[in-house]
Amino acid sequence: MLPAFRRAAGTPPFLIAGPCVVESEALCLAIAERLRGISEELGIPVIFKASFDKANRTSVSGFRGNGIQEGLRVLEKVRSETGLPVLTDVHLPDQCAAVAEVVDMIQTPAFLARQTDLIMAAAACGKPVNIKKAQFMAPPDMAAVLGKARAAAESAGIDDPQIMLCERGSSFGYNNLVVDMRGLVIMREMGAPVVFDATHSVQLPGGGGDRSLGQRQFVAPLARAAMAVGVDGLFMETHPDPDNALSDGPNMVPLSELPDLLRQIVAIAALG
Question: What is the DSSP string of 104-115?
């Protein structure tokens, strides 16, 4: 079951977590089972996340995934075997309907935040949507994106669309991202729940030439800061062996370290 996305004061945030990409059924099930245990232990609602396609890889040789059919099959199995709701990205408008039949929540990638057809197709599916703010957009720019999504939902007859805005850092020179914490406040004042993507915010896009790098040592301090500022949810990619993950390993949280970080997050959230 999906959580209430608008966080009440003093309560834990919801967490979107999982591997960057669907590497295998076994890996996804193992991570999802651990996340379910963490959710039960700490009282944090968890939505399992994995992408069936990473369409924005730096190099043509980067692992993209095993395709939409296999990816959705794995996500459906994760959902049925663990009871966790599941989320994945869409990159094209014509993917939205098929994805919405399987997942509980749809996500649109940061690079595609200005793609009107994609945003509107995702919002018209009737599922909650997490819209990532583009690295090249200012927080106030997301008001127009939110307006597109709400208009599409209204046209589709959806009375109470669940549209979230997600911060994942802004471009700051070459191969670097920074997080302006003011943006979390600005976007929350638009009336939409706000999610902070703590792992992609420490990415160094293209920093390795043919691949992106990351600074995972900054995930925890940024996540704690975002929680203190006031967000409704957190997004963290996690993996049991990030250094050998097939995508985005340098910025992912080791699965073994996730519980301790989340305990800190719960304590901060309890302060109000």
Answer: SEEEE-GGGTT-
